């Protein structure tokens, strides 16, 4: 039996007989449809990038980032608020089974499952179909995730007290405080620092005590009888301590 007898060879026009190196054609072979990368195309990219950069700089100058007062760890009434793209997670932690003793569920397990499913989506749904109607599971899960994010973000925006947030984050005037004085020690011992801050600049639970314009006797009266959100009987020190505290607050002025 001769070699090759009884065998048939089928050629494929898509496979070249001679292998050529993978060298792209010169752009001059496609007149009007392409251009040189350097300097033509790259220069256009730089120009577009420069326009966006200048626009971004103008926007930051016209609308600077809103700043709040310096963080005060003694202000227990301050309510932090994350940036807008984390508001849906912030709202999620307000619900019963995602907060308190279940914080781990709301902070780690539920977001972990959601983002884990997003990362595994290319491996879980490997079908060749591109039409949404042909991929109901993948499209349904994505729509559910988008709807949940929009709903939680909206709920967080409408339920947040923006006026109180603006007040608690407002930059207050600073004053030179003698933290070694006996009056300041009375201020600390009586718990005033928890509502008015360690610099007397105030917080969400109490107003600023800097430049009050009140006389010592007026301040002493408020400390005993209360005013606004401050109930009566908060001050429990001696008359000498009350006098020292009143004079201290009355004479505290901004720099």
TrEMBL record:
UniProtKB keywords: Electron transport, Heme, Iron, Membrane, Metal-binding, Transmembrane, Transmembrane helix, Transport
Pfam families named among the record's database cross-references: Cytochrom_B_C (PF00032), Cytochrome_CBB3 (PF13442)
Organism superkingdom: Bacteria
Mode of membrane association: Multi-pass membrane protein
Transmembrane segments: 46-63, 102-124, 136-154
Localization in the cell: Membrane
Location of the Cytochrome c domain: 164-253
Location of the Cytochrome b/b6 C-terminal region profile domain: 27-154
SUPFAM superfamilies with a match to the protein in the record: a domain/subunit of cytochrome bc1 complex (Ubiquinol-cytochrome c reductase), Cytochrome c
Principal place of residence: membrane
Alphabetical list of InterPro entries matching this protein: Cyt_b/b6_C (IPR005798), Cyt_b/b6_C_sf (IPR036150), Cyt_c-like_dom (IPR009056), Cyt_c-like_dom_sf (IPR036909), Cytb/b6-like_sf (IPR027387), Cytochrome_c550/c551-like (IPR051811), MenaQ_cyt_c_Rdtase_cyt_b/c-su (IPR012049)
Subunit-structure text: The main subunits of the menaquinol:cytochrome c complex are a Rieske-type iron-sulfur protein (QcrA), a cytochrome b (QcrB) and a cytochrome c (QcrC).
Family as reported in the entry's similarity comment: Belongs to the cytochrome b family.
Stated role: Component of the menaquinol:cytochrome c reductase complex.
Protein name as it appears in the record: Menaquinol:cytochrome c reductase cytochrome c subunit
């Amino acid at each position: 039996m001769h070699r090759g007898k009884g065998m048939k060879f089928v050629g494929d026009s898509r496979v070249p007989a001679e292998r050529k190196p993978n060298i792209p054609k010169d752009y001059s072979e496609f007149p009007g449809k392409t251009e040189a990368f350097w300097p033509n195309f790259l220069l256009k990219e730089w120009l577009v990038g420069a326009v966006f950069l200048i626009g971004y700089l103008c926007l930051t100058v016209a609308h600077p980032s809103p700043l709040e007062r310096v963080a005060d760890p003694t202000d227990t009434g301050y309510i932090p608020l994350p940036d807008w793209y984390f508001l849906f997670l912030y709202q999620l932690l307000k619900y019963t089974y995602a907060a308190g003793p279940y914080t781990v569920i709301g902070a780690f397990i539920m977001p972990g499952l959601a983002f884990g499913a997003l990362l595994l989506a290319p491996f879980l749904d490997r079908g060749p179909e591109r039409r949404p109607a042909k991929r109901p599971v993948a499209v349904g899960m994505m729509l559910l995730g988008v709807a949940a994010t929009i709903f939680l973000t909206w709920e967080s925006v409408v339920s947040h007290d923006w006026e109180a947030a603006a007040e608690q984050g407002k930059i207050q005037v600073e004053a030179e405080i003698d933290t070694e004085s006996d009056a300041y020690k009375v201020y600390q011992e009586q718990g005033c620092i928890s509502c008015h801050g360690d610099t007397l600049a105030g917080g969400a639970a109490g107003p600023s005590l800097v430049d009050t314009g009140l006389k010592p006797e007026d301040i002493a009266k408020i400390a005993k009888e209360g005013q606004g959100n401050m109930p009566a009987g908060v001050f429990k020190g001696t008359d000498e301590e009350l006098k020292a505290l009143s004079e201290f607050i009355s004479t505290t002025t901004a720099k």
